[in-house]
Amino acid sequence: MLVSFYCDAAGSVTMQSADALALLGLMGLAGSVPGSLAADDVAGVLCRLGNVVAAIESPHPPLQSVKITPSTLQRARQLFALLSVAAVQGCDVRWSERFTKRSPASAQAQSPIATSPAPS
């Protein structure tokens, strides 16, 4: 499953659900999808995420630093950029599941209804 974070002023950031849930936890938010963040709360969450990213990237990270994957760190930077724009513009931030579209061929192959060729 993919999760997209978006706001009207900054567009969207899409990531794997594992990265999204990890970042929601690091920001001190409930790890539920879908969810939202009011514009008034964006600055505080942005600060928490910035502190986590700075601690992880520090040459001398704290002894009990949070262990995250390089993928999650990259997504944290992208989400930080989105939250920064949202904070400046006073924009709410929302997140929800984003389903990938299957190609018609794969959908037909998985269909429980057998199809036969049209008569000639």
The tally of domains stands at 1
Strand order of the largest sheet: 2-1-4-3
The CA-CA distance between the termini, in Å, is 42 Å
pLDDT averaged residue by residue:
81
Number of strands: 4
Beta-strand residue fraction:
15-25%
- How many helices in DSSP terms? 4
Question: Shape, please?
Answer: globular
Q: List the helices and strands in order.
A: EEHEHHEH
Query: Describe the biggest sheet?
Result: 4 strands, antiparallel
Broad structural category: alpha+beta
Description:
The chain has 120 residues and is α+β, with helices and mostly antiparallel strands. The chain has one domain (2-109). The chain has four helices and four strands; from the N terminus they run ββαβααβα. It has helices at 17-26, 39-57, 70-89, 104-109, and strands at residues 2-7, 11-16, 35-37, 93-98. It has a four-stranded antiparallel sheet. The N and C termini lie far apart (42 Å). The model is unreliable at 106-117 (pLDDT under 50).
